[in-house]
Amino acid sequence: MRVNHGKWQRWSTRDVSFELPLPDDAEVEIITAGNTDLDDVWLGNQGLAIASVSIADQAIITPSQPQKRVTVIGDSITAGCWVNGRRPSTDYRPESCYIGLVSDALGIDVDRIAYSAGGVLRSAVGNVPPAAQFLSYLDAQTPWHPSIMPDMVLINLGVNDRRFARQQFQKAYLAFVKQVKTVYPNVPLALMVPFAQTYADIIEETALECHTEFVPTKNWCQSFTDGLHPDQQGSLQIAQHLTPVLAELLNQDQQ
Asked: Is 0.90 surpassed by the pTM of this model?
């Protein structure tokens, strides 16, 4: 949680509740984070959510002003896993991974659909199915569709599909891009190459075939926690590259 764009403060969900003193006029942002690969988020109701917020009797709570909105469909890197180290949950940083930093830099809202280890062919951890199935559900029981259309959709998938045959990936990726275009009709779509450059050529070909934007990422990240997940320095490097690219794409959409 942070107040008025200040420093992020962290609390453990093991604590039953906590109180946060606020100034007279405060913008409060909250992120839930910390599911590990062992949590059954798809079948076992083990996801994280905000159950309730209580305020003083004299206080007034109002929604923040709407901003440009980008939906990012990704995996553990987009979710912010392993940014601060190798400890599950404790070292996850959704607020300061690459897309969290870009969100702050551009002053936009970001919706993330991201599951650890998931891809267009590979199932994610927590019994989550591949992207074609998880796109339209919150969990195994709950269908989902976007209630507010974003200004842009960004797909950053593929690195977890690296052990599948190229032809398999190409077919599944193309089908998924078409599915996303159906779920988000008339919303600009950008296809982003994974930072490990997995299937970069196929993703570029798909962008041309589907008439979407293409975001190359070669040499964007030079610092990793484990050779695959960007650490905090790597996240900063990516954000420095992606921020102007995404700004141009959003402005291009408005012209």
From this structure: yes
